[in-house]
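Hi U.,

Before I forget, here's the chain from the pilot set. I'm dumping it here mostly so it's searchable later in email.
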Amino acid sequence: MGELDEHPSRGVRLTLEIWHPNCWTLEVTEATDANLIAHTVYQSTDGKVKGHFTAYADSAGSIEDLIEATRKSGLTSSVIEMKRRHEFDYRGPVPGSVTTELFVEYDPKHTISDALASKGFVQDAPVRVRDGREHWPVFVNETDRTCLRERLDGVRDASDATIDVTKIYTHGVQSRHVLRRVDTLSNRQREIFELACEHDYYAWPREITTNELAEEVGLAKTTLLEHLRKAEAKLLNPNEDNELLSH
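Structure:
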């Protein structure tokens, strides 16, 4: 097998779709119509951890179902709900129309984060959990395909996990691909996308809300989002190497 990039020190970024046993986030998102974004984990003095999550769904009832399922789970110790102050308090877009913030205490031995870290995979963005699957954005300082497969197989074996790679790109390859894809945007899509970047719409934390950006452009929010989503679809599609690492 060849290398993905001629400069191994650059590493690659991956998005991993993961299932593994005894995980409360997978159980509650599979059992309900709500989903989760996992942000930060805090270590407790008793060996457990407290995780900060955003729960999102299309209805308040689905959120309540997820919270109730989380409280009833044998894999969690406590659940604290904290209402969000407004729609765009946090760092990025949340797909659901109803959201709430949760702090959940649980045993870290039921997570896959240690197995990923032990093989050199470093989380570099919030983890999204939907429909009983975790979606991990990670970086690894490795570009050789055979070595990447071996690392992923090590995580699979250690956690009895199912792991598929849904996105993969090297720093250099991604930059070149994005530059080429900008040329595929319509004039309006490019104008709105570049304005969003100028106003740090994609920053972390986000510096402008969708409503504010729509007002700046002079469009309805739904129209703005349609332009941005079409632009993002053209710019951010995964490259052809995905299938090489998936099982």
